[in-house]
Amino acid sequence: MSDAVDVLIMGAGPAGLQAAVHAVRKKASVVVVGRPERSAIYRAHVENYLCVDGITDGHEMIEVAIAQATRFGAQLIEEDVLHVEAEEEGGFLVRTEGKRFHALSIIIAIGTSKKKLRVPGENELAGKGVSYCVDCDCNFYRKAKVVVVGNESAAVDGAITLTKYASEVTLICKDLVVSDAMHQRLAESSVVVKQDAWVKEIVGDTAVTSVVLDDDSILEVDGVFIELGSKGPMELATAIGVELDMETFSYINTNKKMETNISGVYAAGDIAGQPFQMAKAVGEGCVAGWEAANYVKKLKRERGE
Fold this sequence. Notes:
This protein is of the alpha/beta class. The chain has 2 domains: about 5-115 and about 230-305, 3-Layer(bba) Sandwich (FAD/NAD(P)-binding domain), CATH 3.50.50; about 130-225, FAD/NAD(P)-binding domain (3-Layer(bba) Sandwich), CATH 3.50.50.
């Protein structure tokens, strides 16, 4: 069962929260999905933003923004988005760690970084058994032994997905930071969980053959999936056909209305390209929220709602 919402915003940073403020004030129902502490601004000190006098802590600004957005009527869900798909009847199905939403419009505002383990063998074996995208590469590991490394929702969801392909899936993690629903899904799966362990080296010549853990034990594997954090924005975007820039494939193409090539899908902030500044993120969030709400109103009129 999915909850219906006009505008679903992925990302609880400056772009996402500003989008929420503008969309909800145009009478759209709005859900923001994301963890505010993941925003790049959360641990930063701000002194080059208009109307900010002196140095201000980024987390204080985010907290004020959350209070604004929720006071106006937006709902904040502090979970990660795990899956997005376009629905035949229109709109989008969005699955988080513990909820499902049917959204008429979505705004992608979740940054761009993809974290690495930074261990010996990782760079050398990238594409030769080391992967950063379960959804992209799972089909290459049918009946193989794989490990997934990570402490958060992307790692757990990726490990569970891989059980449909690989013969053996091991999740290597320290302290899992996921919802109770994700813990339950993991417990009900065939994933082998190695708690309080971490990978310190990836071994192989032309392909991955094993990983060395921090207790010096060795696991023979065919593949290593590195999932440090939440589901990557590029994975979520390309899953529904959103176009990336053709030169670097590192950000989402948008027009001046922050529209992507997919009707009803908008992007704002770092995911929409440089410069990576809060002023740009807020401005783009304003436009994206405004336009998404207008899109929903037009769609409802056309449907006679």
